[in-house]
Write a structure and sequence with these properties.
Layout (H helix, E strand, L loop, with lengths): L1 E5 L3 E2 L6 H19 L3 E9 L3 H10 L3 H18 L6 E4 L3 H16 L3 E11 L4 E3 L19 E10 L5 H10 L4 E2 L1 H13 L4 E2 L1 E3 L8 E2 L2 E6 L1 H6 L1 H4 L7 H7 L4 E5 L3 H16 L18 E4 L2 E3 L14 H7 L2 H11 L6 E3 L1 H30 L24 H16 L3 H10 L5 H11 L1 H7 L1 H22 L4 H10 L12 H4 L24
Parallel strand pairs: 1-3, 1-13, 2-3, 3-4, 8-14, 13-14, 15-16
Antiparallel strand pairs: 5-6, 5-7, 7-9, 10-12, 11-12
Helix pairs in contact: 4-10, 5-6, 6-10, 12-13, 12-15, 13-18, 14-15, 16-18, 17-18, 18-19
Bound molecules: 5'-O-[(L-methionyl)-sulphamoyl]adenosine (MSP).
Length: 533
């Protein structure tokens, strides 16, 4: 199975903050989950550079535009690298490969008769990089998302895209593919936007008025509208316009992950653009001639910072690299997806991070591993207790702990949740599920008291401790997508090499009994040291 996942490409007028980090980490988690299950995975992120915002920011910094763009793109790419994000490619819209893709795409749309010239006068918000109708503005005629920015009044003759011609097809698409947009509340939002809005709109600007952008093929006096160019990045990175075979391998994308602020572009404009181009480009057609559309768009919510909107003027914008100095980054990743239902809005709150760090991570996960390893080493000669793998665990049925099947069920749930991007529910099940979970494993220690039991029933103690260790091994793999470093630490503390992932099939990895009875257990280390230590 192939899996192609993308993040939005980010504007470079500023460096990454925790909003963009949230999206990028979510995509990283899903990419890792797919790699873990053996899918051939391609994870794309990048930068959206042909924007008026870049020009303004470059001017402000006193730098030449190209120099500014190169510096900023490097900051974005390096930030993700430093944070351990496992992207496979980083696309910049100023790259040659992207220009080739845009050129091919524009020509296909033009050939379909969906591009025409028109003169108009409208308000433009550089913050949104979007035209605004009167009904979209606040009472004081300002953009609700960027009330501090003056709107530009644009009076030009530009090229227009016949979006309206695709209104019915788009609505039909929503009807036929209920999963096209997730979560469902976003589908409803977009459906009403398409029904009531979605008119033709300008897809170019006069070159003399904007200092950036890709020239319209055949008309150097016009530059392509930034969103029309940006969306095509998802194709240019996988060879559209440069490498047909590569493109056939990866396209269509399986998931475009976006924030709720940009669904209009991804869920309506983008499919309409593809429907149009596909009419005249066989590469964009399925065998039956239908357009090759992305499989799904998932829109997550926005979060506030300690209850307030994140904004430069409030001074509460958080740099992810700074944050990663305060807490282990895996703990932040855990917090993001345990605290906020994926798809909902949420709040970033340091006190809650500290609470979750202490209770969920240190006390529940870290402690369990530490106790299991320490007791096994103490009572079983520094080794994983010797138990017979066939007979075990059923004998523990007098406790609230389920049996091997409960762990298998947990795996199925976790797998399904990752597949449907419900990262929050995967974590909830691992920590708090029924039958087998971290909470129940801790309860098993309290109920069976291995430190007393060892004197009365060493055989049962061996069984309890093996169960705990083997459950920790399973959990390590379940949480690997969310906490890759912690996962590797757990595996090492169990005496195994995390690289076994490369030689082991997913089905074998999650089979009960992967921890060999009698194998050596190294000296344990504290998984989650006290914060500040
Ligand atoms: N360049 C366009 C996207 C083009 S994709 C073809 C763009 N860029 S952006 O830099 O403004 O990034 C927007 C994205 O950043 C949002 O969709 C969301 O994924 C993320 N976030 C920005 N602020 C955020 C929060 N406060 N909370 C969560 N996500 C946030 O739009």
């Amino acid at each position: 199975m192939k899996y192609y996942i993308t993040t939005p490409i980010y504007y470079v007028n500023d460096k990454p903050h925790i909003g963009s980090t949230y999206t990028t980490v979510a995509a990283d988690i899903l990419a890792r989950a797919h790699r873990l299950r053996g899918d051939n995975t391609f994870f794309l992120t990048g930068t959206d550079e042909n924007s008026q915002k870049s020009v303004v920011a470059a001017e402000k910094s006193g730098k030449n535009l190209d120099v500014y763009l190169n510096e900023m793109a490097a900051i974005w790419e390096n930030t993700w690298k430093e944070l351990g994000v496992s992207f496979d490619d980083f696309i910049r819209t100023t790259e040659e490969r992207h220009h080739k893709a845009v050129d091919r795409f524009w020509k296909a749309v033009e050939k379909s008769g969906d591009i025409y010239k028109d003169t108009y006068e409208r308000h433009y918000c550089v913050g949104c990089e979007d035209f605004k109708t009167d009904s979209e503005l606040n009472k004081d005629d300002r953009c609700p998302l960027h009330p501090n920015k003056d709107l530009d009044l644009v009076q030009e003759e530009n090229y227009f895209f016949k979006a309206s011609a695709y209104k019915d097809d788009i609505l039909q698409l929503f009807h036929n593919h209920q999963n096209f947009i997730q979560p469902p509340k976003r589908l409803n939002e977009i459906r009403s936007y398409v029904k009531n809005g979605f008119a033709d709109f300008s897809i170019s600007r006069e070159a003399k008025k904007v200092t950036c952008g890709i020239p319209v093929p055949g008309d150097d006096s016009q530059r392509i509208y930034v969103w029309f160019d940006a969306l095509i990045n998802y194709m240019s990175a996988v060879g559209y316009g440069t490498d047909d075979e590569l493109f056939k391998k990866w396209w269509p994308a399986n998931l475009h992950l976006v924030g709720k602020d940009i669904i209009k572009f991804h869920c309506a404009l983008w499919p309409a653009m593809i429907m149009s181009a596909a009419k005249n480009d066989p590469l964009l057609q399925n065998d039956d001639g239908s357009p090759k559309l992305p499989e799904q768009i998932f829109a997550h919510g926005f979060f506030t910072i300690e209850g307030q909107k994140m904004s430069k003027s409030l001074g509460n914008v958080i740099d992810p690299l700074e944050l990663a100095k305060e807490y282990p980054f895996d703990a932040i990743r855990y917090f993001f997806f345990r605290e906020i239902g994926f798809g909902n809005d949420g709040n970033f709150d340091r006190a809650r991070i500290a609470e979750r760090y202490q209770s969920d991570l240190a006390n529940t996960l870290g402690n369990l591993l530490n106790r299991a390893v320490n007791m096994s080493r103490k009572y079983f000669d520094g080794k994983v207790p010797l138990v017979s793998l066939d007979s075990q665990i059923h004998k523990l049925s007098d406790s609230s702990w389920g049996d091997v099947e409960a762990v298998e069920t947990l795996w199925q749930q976790v797998d399904e949740y990752y597949k449907t991007a419900r990262i929050d529910l995967a974590l909830e099940a691992i920590w708090n599920g029924e039958g087998a979970s971290l909470i129940l494993a801790n309860r098993l220690v309290e109920e069976t008291k291995p430190f007393k039991l060892i004197k009365e029933d060493p055989e049962k103690t061996a069984l309890v401790l093996y169960t705990l260790l083997e459950f920790c091994r399973n959990v390590a793999w379940m949480i690997e997508p969310v906490m890759p470093k912690i996962s590797a630490d757990i595996i090492k503390q169990l005496g195994q090499n995390p690289n076994i992932i490369h030689q082991t099939k997913f089905t074998d990895l999650k089979k009960w009994g992967g921890l060999e009875p009698g194998s050596d257990l190294p000296e344990p280390k504290i998984l989650f040291p006290r914060l500040g230590e």
